[in-house]
Design the sequence.
């Protein structure tokens, strides 16, 4: 073994930066990337001393394996002379002692090189021969045991049921479901709950939140006046695809190139609607905007976001210069842009919409056609013909954004990203050269070729990136913490073998998303308690996290019983503070919806990019201008103001209170217990009951002496409460309900 | 840290906690102050729409000489042009004369009546240039240092770097006004925190109606009633915190307390009835009435209460046509308030540690666009005053027609670097890692503008 040698040479084993051999990808590449690649990396124009450290050959010129004392790389990073030392002091990126030691140890151990992990196609590693309920657990347990971390116990049954519901459908479980499981918890019962949730039409709604953030779905154009546009059919397509468990590879192809697919079955409409992805860009109709400039902006938007959505890769830098860290050149950037050069659009102006029949319209049409075929009475025939004409009139159909084709525009490299400069070389569609070439013979490669390359099991990134993001939904963090950068600057995954195993397994099993979710939630790791003092870095415990913005809303509406279960349709306009849109130039009128539309899930709320709904914004929902893979989770006073004062939440409290009072004969503690079951899936403690009963008594007395206040409180929101209920009683219970809806636990998934 | 103390105080009814510090509870990065600050806060008077430098602060006699003649092609060939693209380009004389003011002799157009009174306090920069020619991207560029969406605005960067000293108000407050011109849209992304955590986003204050979204209690809910709800929720959260180790619970409790304090203090902030008449007269306002002047007064009150970054947008400077009447109409809305703010802060000794910036997103073309001027990104003027700025100077020049910057050009990144410097921050070291890269407000550019430092 090397041990004695290392000991003799370094004269201090304590200096060794990592126990066991240094691994290039885990330990060395991040240092080189962060500290050296800016001058010695992929960017040819910025490369100093003709030295690059991002390739095996380049590194070989800077070191002699086994001999750090003769390796220029090591000599320079340890040099005392500020003129000689690397990185130069003015770079502001000095190496730490630990980093220098890692480099030393790595050279000493032979300076083994590896290609960047995420760019090598994943291979299924053997499942560790270690105890674990699922194969996934065996990977996780190996690392937890090796690091000597402490396992958290399994979570309480009620926590598990609530967690599963909030994670898979984004809606809380009913008390009956919880009671049944708590009375007889078993793996079988748990598994049945999982199957039920995966079959629920609300599964797609929950997963869509993630996808709509990635593709920057919004109901407005984005720039300047930010006019509203119509593309909710694309949103419904996403929800439907997840619900139908469309394989992920198919899902990719339909969205990037649905318009290029052969139209067999199902109906071609689905493909066209799916191709709306390419139209999710921001557009402008600002006076004085130059079409040429915006055509360039749209092209860059698509390259940047397509790479981010599907490949977890940052290509945006290469619009103006070769990427500083990853092997993407400017040529690569504009070659990618050329794939989208066939999309018909104008640089400046309101985006063109396409009439599209809904399922209902098509069904109605088919019905009328059938009846007409069988009709004999001329009068009846005439009536049917007229009805058919009406339903077939595209002017009565809703519209959506789809990809329409034109002759491909010429795409040139824009020097420094300057759209005025036509001197750059013309580019044809091609994937980044690092990944090879799509062979299309003499034919120009198309978006369909690009889509197929992305959705191929040969693509090293696609499955890993997706699996990692899905994993995050169920653990609060990915196996690689960077959900949006699998490049050299991204974090090394805590469990690279597991990520690869899951990614390959996902592909081998037909890119089956529901199977993947099932695989994750059936692990013992998923079921661990989050209430444990360990760090959770290795998934030895679960992590509690605040619900996403839309789910904060859905949860309150569900608890109150107000939530509409309607799936899909036009985006809706719930209560919104008066004048919130008034800064928008004569497009600021907000016609709030009424009735059931006020109680739809957050995923259906109209998303205006310049002023997206303030209650969603307060809870970190993004503007949807750029791909977002990882919403921040903040904890702010504005969130408190929303939960305390937004009419949606006040009305939900009122409805929640009515719901409790309509339970029939029982005392106040009984109602409180039911409130806790509805909101938190658990029983309240005596102390909690006591605190809330005190509030109830206090507010009962206050509202008794001020019945006008009680009436005013109950007038919040458009829904009417049962007139049989005593207003003072209902108002006092509304205070209790408001308190419960404001609890940290209520908006937290434990 | 103070978990013990904190919980103790929570149990005791949440008294006396330094809530300003807790505005960023949950965020553990230390204050990123790198050297001694000259200024503690910024008031950014944002003249949205693009004020013409040629009618305000950049005197161009040569342009007058060439009035009506073709614009020399040497200036415009191959240049980005907005609405004038494809049109005949003709020089247009400045619509107003210029005069020198104060001991410093600073030149300003006769369109201003009040700002000249503070000429000796201002540093006028005539050599600004920017990176975008249309409003929306140019706003984004001035606020975030890039035209790509999703990046944090300068106020958010500042809060991220320095935190908020305010006890009961957000650290980054935005107000908007209109009047005298077109109401060009301003998107909330202009004060958004982008990829930075949400606690750093700007909070929009309305000067009429509810001052802050959701700040008013629901109908039928009294102050005492609301206090009970907050206290009960906090008591229950506190109990929960004893069961599960989650630092977010303590943060939640403190954020509810801060929210409640905001509910209590914001109406008082907006109520200017205790301001003496001579102060109201100085600003030329009757109070917080949604005008720019009223907002200037509120800005002073926000500054007094420790708010770190205050941004007042006035939407009305997009003079494509009718500039001769339109520009003075807009000026009438902002002139007195801008000057009064400088005077009022000065008389309170606050100008020394407050940085006031008066700027729009770009300038306007020397070429006529009918009776107006088109967007222009190659040159524009702004003024800056207060903490650490050399007063009474005019910095930088443009060419004889005001088309391109000539001496001492100042980019938006340079402006940002200098503002951060005055607040004690090295712009190269204020970074946030996102998508594998360390981002900063100044992107990969930005030079300190030494010439304007006091």
Sequence:
């Amino acid at each position: 073994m090397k041990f004695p040698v290392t000991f003799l040479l370094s004269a201090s084993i304590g200096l060794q930066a990592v126990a066991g051999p240094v691994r290039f990808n885990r330990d060395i590449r991040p240092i080189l990337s962060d500290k050296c690649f800016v001058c010695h990396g992929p960017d040819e124009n910025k490369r100093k001393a003709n030295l690059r450290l991002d390739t095996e050959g380049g590194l070989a010129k800077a070191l002699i394996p086994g001999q750090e004392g003769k390796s220029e790389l090591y000599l320079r990073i340890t040099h005392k002379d500020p003129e000689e030392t690397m990185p130069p002091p003015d770079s502001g990126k000095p190496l730490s002692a630990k980093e220098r030691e890692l480099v030393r140890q790595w050279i000493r151990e032979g300076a083994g090189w590896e290609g960047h992990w995420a760019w090598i196609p994943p291979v299924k590693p053997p499942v560790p021969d270690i105890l674990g309920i699922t194969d996934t657990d065996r990977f996780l347990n190996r690392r937890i045991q090796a690091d000597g971390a402490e396992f958290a116990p399994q979570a309480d049954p009620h926590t598990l049921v609530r967690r599963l519901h909030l994670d898979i459908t984004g809606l809380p479980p009913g008390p009956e479901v919880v009671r049944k499981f708590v009375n007889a918890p078993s793996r079988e019962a748990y598994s049945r709950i999982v199957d039920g949730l995966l079959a629920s039409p609300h599964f797609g709604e929950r997963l869509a939140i993630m996808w709509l953030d990635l593709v920057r779905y919004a109901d407005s154009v984005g720039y300047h006046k930010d006019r509203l546009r119509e593309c909710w059919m694309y949103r419904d397509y996403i929800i439907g695809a997840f619900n139908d468990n469309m394989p992920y590879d198919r899902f990719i192809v339909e969205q990037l190139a649905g318009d290029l697919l052969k139209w067999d079955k199902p109906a071609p409409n689905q493909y066209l609607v799916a191709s709306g992805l390419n139209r999710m860009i921001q557009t402008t109709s600002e006076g004085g905007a130059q079409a040429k400039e915006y055509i360039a902006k749209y092209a860059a938007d698509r390259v940047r976001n397509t790479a981010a959505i599907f490949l977890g890769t940052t290509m945006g830098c290469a619009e103006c210069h070769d990427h500083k860290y990853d092997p993407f050149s400017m040529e690569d950037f504009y070659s990618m842009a050329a794939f989208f050069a066939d999309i018909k659009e104008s640089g400046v102006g309101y985006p063109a919409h396409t009439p599209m029949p809904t399922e209902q319209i098509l069904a109605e049409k088919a019905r009328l056609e059938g009846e007409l075929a069988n009709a004999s009475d001329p009068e009846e025939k005439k009536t049917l013909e007229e009805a058919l004409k009406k339903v077939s009139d595209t002017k009565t159909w809703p519209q959506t954004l789809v990809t329409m084709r034109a002759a491909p525009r010429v795409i040139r490299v824009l020097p420094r990203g300057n759209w005025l400069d036509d001197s750059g070389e013309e580019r044809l569609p091609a994937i980044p050269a690092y990944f090879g070439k799509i062979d299309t013979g003499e034919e120009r490669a198309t978006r369909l070729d690009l889509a197929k390359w992305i959705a191929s099991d040969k693509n090293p990134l696609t499955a890993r990136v997706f699996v990692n993001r899905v994993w995050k939904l169920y653990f609060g963090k990915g196996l690689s913490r960077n959900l949006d950068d699998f490049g050299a600057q991204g974090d090394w995954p805590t469990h690279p073998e597991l990520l690869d195993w899951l990614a390959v397994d996902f592909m081998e099993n037909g890119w089956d998303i529901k199977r993947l979710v099932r695989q994750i939630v059936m692990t013992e790791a998923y079921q661990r308690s989050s209430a444990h003092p360990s760090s959770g870095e290795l998934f030895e415990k679960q992590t509690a996290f605040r619900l996403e913005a839309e789910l904060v809303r859905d949860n309150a509406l569900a608890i109150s019983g107000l939530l509409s279960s309607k799936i899909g349709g036009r985006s809706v306009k719930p209560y919104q503070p008066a004048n919130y849109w008034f800064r928008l130039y004569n497009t600021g009128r907000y016609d709030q919806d009424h009735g059931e539309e006020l109680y739809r899930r957050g995923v259906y709320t109209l998303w205006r990019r310049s002023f997206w709904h303030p209650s969603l914004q307060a809870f970190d929902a993004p503007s949807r201008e750029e791909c977002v893979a990882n919403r921040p989770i903040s904890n702010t006073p504005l969130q408190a103001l929303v939960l305390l004062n937004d009419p949606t939440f006040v009305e939900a409290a009122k409805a929640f209170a009515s719901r409790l009072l309509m339970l029939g004969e029982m005392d106040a503690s009984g109602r409180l217990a039911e409130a806790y079951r509805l909101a938190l899936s658990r029983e309240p403690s005596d102390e909690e009951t006591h605190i809330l009963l005190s509030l109830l008594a206090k507010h009962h007395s206050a509202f008794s002496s001020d019945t006008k206040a009680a009436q005013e409180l109950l007038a919040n929101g458009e829904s009417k409460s049962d007139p049989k209920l005593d207003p003072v009683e209902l108002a006092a219970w509304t205070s209790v309900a408001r308190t419960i809806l404001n609890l940290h636990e209520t908006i937290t998934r434990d | 840290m103070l978990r013990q103390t904190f919980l103790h105080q929570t149990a005791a009814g949440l008294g006396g906690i330094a809530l300003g510090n807790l505005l960023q509870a949950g965020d553990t990065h230390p204050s990123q102050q790198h050297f001694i600050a000259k200024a503690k806060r910024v008031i950014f008077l944002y003249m949205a729409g693009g004020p013409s430098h040629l009618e305000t602060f950049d005197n161009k006699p040569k342009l007058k000489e060439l009035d009506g003649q073709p614009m020399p092609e040497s200036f415009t060939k191959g240049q980005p042009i907005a609405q004038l693209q494809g049109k005949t380009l003709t020089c247009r004389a400045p619509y107003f004369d210029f005069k020198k003011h104060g001991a410093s002799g600073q030149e300003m157009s006769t369109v201003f009546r009040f700002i000249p009174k503070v000429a000796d306090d201002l540093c006028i920069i005539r050599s600004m240039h920017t990176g975008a020619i249309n409003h929306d991207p140019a706003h984004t560029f001035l606020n975030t240092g890039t035209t790509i969406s999703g990046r944090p605005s300068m106020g958010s960067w500042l809060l991220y770097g320095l935190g908020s000293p305010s006890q009961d108000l957000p650290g980054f407050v935005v107000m908007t006004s209109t009047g005298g011109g077109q109401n060009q849209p301003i998107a909330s992304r202009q004060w958004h925190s982008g990829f930075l955590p949400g606690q750093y986003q700007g909070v929009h204050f309305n000067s009429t109606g509810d001052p802050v979204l959701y700040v008013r209690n629901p109908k039928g809910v009294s102050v005492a009633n609301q206090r009970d709800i907050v206290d009960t929720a906090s008591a229950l959260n506190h109990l929960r915190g004893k069961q599960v180790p989650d630092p977010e619970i303590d943060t939640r409790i403190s954020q509810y307390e801060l929210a409640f304090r905001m509910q209590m203090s914001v109406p008082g902030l907006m109520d200017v009835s205790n301001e003496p008449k001579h102060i109201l007269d100085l600003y030329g306002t009757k109070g917080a009435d949604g005008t720019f002047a009223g907002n200037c007064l509120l800005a002073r009150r926000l500054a007094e209460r420790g708010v770190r970054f205050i941004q007042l947008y006035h939407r009305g400077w997009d003079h494509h046509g009718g500039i001769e009447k339109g520009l003075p109409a807009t000026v009438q809305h902002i002139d007195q308030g801008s000057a009064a703010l400088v005077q009022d802060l000065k008389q309170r000794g606050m100008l020394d540690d407050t940085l006031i910036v008066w700027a729009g997103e770009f300038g306007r073309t020397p070429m006529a666009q009918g009776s107006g001027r088109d967007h222009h990104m190659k040159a524009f003027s702004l003024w800056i005053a207060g903490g650490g700025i050399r007063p009474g100077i005019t910095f930088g020049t443009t060419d004889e027609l005001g088309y391109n910057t000539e001496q001492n050009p100042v980019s938006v990144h340079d402006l940002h670097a200098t503002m951060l410097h005055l607040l004690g921050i090295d712009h190269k070291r204020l970074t946030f890692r996102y998508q594998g890269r360390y981002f900063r407000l100044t992107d990969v550019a930005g030079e300190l503008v030494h010439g304007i430092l006091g």
In short: The CA atoms of residues 662 and 725 of chain A lie 8 Å apart. Chain A touches chain B through 101 residues (CB under 8 Å). The beta strands of chain A are 354-355, 399-400, 411-412, 426-427, 545-546, 748-749.
